[in-house]
Design goal:
Strand order of the largest sheet: 1-2-3-4-5-6-7-8
Strand content: 15-25%
Shape: globular
Cofactor: S-adenosyl-L-methionine; Mg(2+); [4Fe-4S] cluster
Number of strands: 8
Function: Catalyzes the complex heterocyclic radical-mediated conversion of 6-carboxy-5,6,7,8-tetrahydropterin (CPH4) to 7-carboxy-7-deazaguanine (CDG), a step common to the biosynthetic pathways of all 7-deazapurine-containing compounds.
CATH superfamily: Aldolase class I
CATH architecture: Alpha-Beta Barrel
Pathway: Purine metabolism; 7-cyano-7-deazaguanine biosynthesis
Number of helices: 5
InterPro entries: 7-CO-7-deazaguanine_synth-like, Aldolase_TIM, rSAM, rSAM_sf
Family: Belongs to the radical SAM superfamily. 7-carboxy-7-deazaguanine synthase family.
Helix content: 10-25%
């Protein structure tokens, strides 16, 4: 769909320079998605892997974040191989709704109620990011926290349109359950893509 150099606005790598590659196509369809234009497979330009790698190499970006839509609806082995061959770390942001492909330095799993992650992806996650849209999302997130590896970082992130209402609840929840950390979409606060 698009690719651009910015900073990572969420989760463990928040604040780090990163090159985003947003792939079109999504089978999850969250009602609150902030990039609904990414849902279509066919409405976006196609770029050769070599041209994407070259664009990244023209920046000092140490990390490429592959996101979507749902990036795992695409075969990602060739892309991640090319990135790694050029010294670029590979990160993915996925709902985990499709089989894992590609070689990843960091897997951010953000499961969605609309289509839950495949069980085999849960133990591979480096980061579990639960989007908190309503109070029931705390208990829903705990079921996935129980299935990830012990080293996996756990984040609660308010859904942007509900941030004013949900952030205080998240703070209270984290104080009672300190294994979790707060993730905010800082890119939206500082108005960068």
């Amino acid at each position: 769909m698009e690719h651009f150099y910015t900073i990572q606005g969420e989760g463990y790598h928040q604040g780090k320079a990163a090159y985003f590659v947003r792939l079109g196509g999504c089978d999850v369809g969250c009602t609150w998605c902030d990039v609904k234009e990414s849902w279509s497979f066919d409405a976006h330009p196609h770029w050769a892997i070599a041209s994407i790698v070259e664009a990244i190499k023209n920046t000092p970006a140490p990390i490429a974040v592959i996101t979507g839509g749902e990036p795992l609806l695409h075969p990602l082995d060739a892309l991640t191989t090319a990135l790694r061959e050029n010294g670029i770390a590979t990160n993915i942001e996925t709902s985990g709704s499709a089989s894992l492909s590609g070689a990843w330095d960091w897997i951010c799993l953000s499961p969605k109620k609309f289509k839950q992650p495949l069980p085999e992806i849960l133990p591979l996650a480096n980061e579990l990011k639960i989007i908190v849209y309503n109070k029931s999302d705390f208990a829903w997130g705990e079921q996935f926290a129980a299935q990830v590896a012990p080293h996996c970082k756990l984040y609660l992130q308010p859904e942007w349109s509900k941030a004013a209402a949900m952030t205080p609840l998240i703070i209270d929840y984290i104080k009672e359950h300190p294994k979790w950390e707060l993730s905010l979409q800082i890119h939206k606060y500082i108005n960068v893509p």
